[in-house]
Predict the structure.
Amino acid sequence: MTATYDLIFSGEINDNVEETQVRKNVAALFKASPAQVEKLFSGKTVVLKNGLDEATAKKYQAALKKAGAICQLRPKQTENEAAPHPKPSPKAAPDPKASPKPSTSDKTQIDTPDTGITVAPAGADVQDKKPEPHYDVPDTSSISLRPQSGYLVDPSQDEPPPAPDTSHITLDSQD
């Protein structure tokens, strides 16, 4: 598998060329608007092209160098290579001298601009509570109960079943 590269630009320019001229050259090279060129020279690292083979990446790098812009080639990782584990930034390391400020709310705001994401403190219930179900109570005023004694059915109330009609049955003699 051939290696692929990303063309990275951080706003660096050649010392021998004025910045306005470099901006014009880059705008002409990429056919970009002034707003797009302004984003390139913001000081942030920008990937100009990605997934380039080595020969094409070097051609772009040479063209940008000729225009007065200094860019770097960064090899892309393939699927087979393991991604390096990111090192924790010094900003993320807790300062043992600093005391945590008590939170006035039950949620903590994440330090990300314009996301509106919040994180609940550890152990907090994050699911909304479900309302208690409401059941209609049936009207039982017309139901009465008999006191418990003996059988459920009073035997004195039962009538004996009628006798079966056997008038149509006859017996033959065997003489």
Q: What stands out?
A: The two ends are 115 Å apart (CA to CA). The helical segments are 19-30, 34-40, 54-67.
